[in-house]
Amino acid sequence: MKAFVLDRYGKKRALRAAEMPVPELRDDEVLIEVHAAGVNLLDAKIRDGEFKLVLPYQPPLILGHDVAGVVVKAGPQVRQFKVGDEVYARPDDFRIGTFAEFVPVKEASVALKPRGLTMEEAASIPIVGLTAWQALVGKAGLKKGQKVFIQAGSGGVGTFAIQLAKHLGATVATTTSAANLALVKSLGADVVVDYKTQDFEEVLRDYDVVLNSQDGKTLEKSLRVLGSGGKLISISGPPDPEFGEEIAASGFMKLVMRLLSLGVRRKAQRRSIGYAFLFMKANGSQLREITALIEAGAIRPVIDRVFPFAATNDALAYVESGRAKGKVVVKIK
């Protein structure tokens, strides 16, 4: 099969177009013929070696964390899916590889593709949808009437999270540039802060939840817009001790995570705020919940550009540029 392969870690290192064997199918997996694959900053960070301690992949490695396609084979333990089903998924860590013509995915991580979506639209959903769901529903328990601040509203996670938060009945604030004001308003943002001319810390007060996706300076400022009892959920770090437990990290790594997050956890505690780090996980049942919202018209995919498979490296570079409004997708079939 055709695939894009990372031969070794390196900043902005190009992936190599190669012929690779189709991966062997495990008993609890389906083999998906990939029609489209979402492109995420996570792919670039793994390529650059930023996650080597948490996700110690051994190159050569096929990247890609979002897939939409058709089931072409099912393992003997698979009960929910059959050959010919149109599906989408975020493959589990250490079984990634959607920048290829075929990818095996655990049955428990797969869902039927939402009706009415193209393969490209479906491929744009899993990572950002599951990230928003696990942050706002899982970690935050966001409720009707609460106020949530979602950073970078025109990005992949932001465009999805705004819609999910509005569906849950929250008042939504976000940051973006003036050029993307109409987009985030159309998705449901109530308060929009132009990050080029305004400081969100001066505009927002007594929020219940912040979804942080930016740097450490923004994380610190986010603490100050939360009211007592608020929750700060970060998808950009630093990792906390609970995450170390979740991934069964070594004693040394748990200590590193504890130290990395010590400062923000102490500051949060002094303000009676909860801090949690989220590294999203594959989850087919949550994807089915997301499918229901998409089919009901509560959430729509937002895609900036679709690249041909041959231009996978260009797609990665475009995602890294930070200019994308919504998601970037590679069309494979």
UniProtKB/TrEMBL annotation:
It comes from the Bacteria. The keyword Isomerase does not apply. Keywords: Oxidoreductase. SUPFAM superfamilies: GroES-like (SSF50129), NAD(P)-binding Rossmann-fold domains (SSF51735). Pfam families: ADH_N, ADH_zinc_N_2. One of its GO terms (molecular function) is alcohol dehydrogenase (NAD+) activity. Its EC number is 1.1.1.1. Residues 10-330 form the Enoyl reductase (ER) domain. Transmembrane segments: none annotated. InterPro entries: ADH-like_N, ER, GroES-like_sf, NAD(P)-bd_dom_sf, YIM1/Zinc_Alcohol_DH_Fams. The keyword DNA damage does not apply. PANTHER family: ALCOHOL DEHYDROGENASE RELATED, RETICULON-4-INTERACTING PROTEIN 1, MITOCHONDRIAL. This is Alcohol dehydrogenase. It comes from Variovorax soli.
